[in-house]
Design brief:
7 helices, mainly alpha, 0% strand, elongated
Length: 160
């Protein structure tokens, strides 16, 4: 009888140990790369800012900025183009379109759009400085593309 009780106790203990749910293991999310966010100058205010077309265009720019931050470059460029279609005199929309084109590696188009942006924002020194910074960045990247963008002669021959 004593052996039976020990056996029953042993079996109960085994069932208790194996039958208990295990504590779920939590995996830590992978750390994200820290994003360096450079604040751009505030959107110019003035009499044109009260214009409903300008306000709608500025709202489209904010949506486009969101797409840029997510890395959805095609949607961002399309949204900035829509902002320009709403208000063709919005230099900020041209700036962001150039920024999107630069990120899509359309350097020549980006430089052309920056010229229009600079002409429209010539009275705003903060924006002129920001445009100059982006222009220099585009020209530097165009002159010295990252190694991932450079093709060897062999790759050009195979792919083209």
């Amino acid at each position: 009888m004593r052996g039976f009780c020990l056996f029953a106790l042993f079996c109960s203990l085994c069932l208790l140990v194996t039958g208990c749910p295990k504590k779920p293991t939590l995996t830590k999310p992978k750390p994200r790369k820290p994003r360096v966010v450079r604040p751009v100058p505030p959107i110019p205010s003035g009499p044109e800012a009260l214009n409903p077309k300008r306000e709608a265009s500025q709202n489209m720019i904010r949506v486009g900025e969101h797409y840029l931050s997510e890395g959805n470059l095609d949607k961002a460029v399309q949204t900035f183009q829509e902002a320009i279609n709403i208000d063709t005199e919005n230099g900020v929309a041209y700036y962001y379109l150039a920024k999107g084109l630069y990120q899509k590696q359309n350097y020549d188009d980006a430089l052309g759009v920056l010229e229009k942006s600079e002409a429209l924002l010539a009275n705003y020194s903060d924006w002129v400085a920001e445009i100059k910074r982006l222009r220099n960045q585009i020209q530097e990247t165009k002159a010295n593309p990252p190694p991932s963008l450079q093709q060897t002669e062999y790759q050009k021959w195979i792919y083209h």
